[in-house]
Specification:
single chain, 94 residues, binds zinc ion
Length: 94
């Protein structure tokens, strides 16, 4: 996710932190769950994370403080996130 403008602007690589859609700062959350540019690519990801919609930790396989010791990553959601990112081609090197 290091190619998103929200991060690139922080490290002075991009002139703006705004998404190309013009609606918001391009953060991981915006890219994964909110950006209108990628609505068509997002169906599977939203189905996999339905019970925890817009949960970045779930989508990226991270453990949260509220998770107990039996926690395991939801690999179905992680795979859906990876397929989403590949389908958008947003993270490819330019
Ligand atoms: Zn956007």
């Amino acid at each position: 996710m290091a190619r998103l403008n929200g991060y690139l602007n922080q490290i002075n690589v991009a002139e703006t932190d705004q998404c190309d859609c013009g609606q918001a700062r391009e953060t991981v959350e915006h890219f994964l769950f909110r950006c209108r540019k990628w609505t068509a690519h997002r169906t599977e990801l939203l189905q996999c994370t339905q019970a925890h919609r817009r949960n970045i930790s779930l989508a990226l396989g991270g453990k949260q403080p509220s998770d107990d010791q039996n926690w395991t990553p939801n690999l179905e959601a992680v795979r859906a996130s990876i397929r989403f990112a590949i389908a958008t081609r947003r993270l490819e090197a330019t």
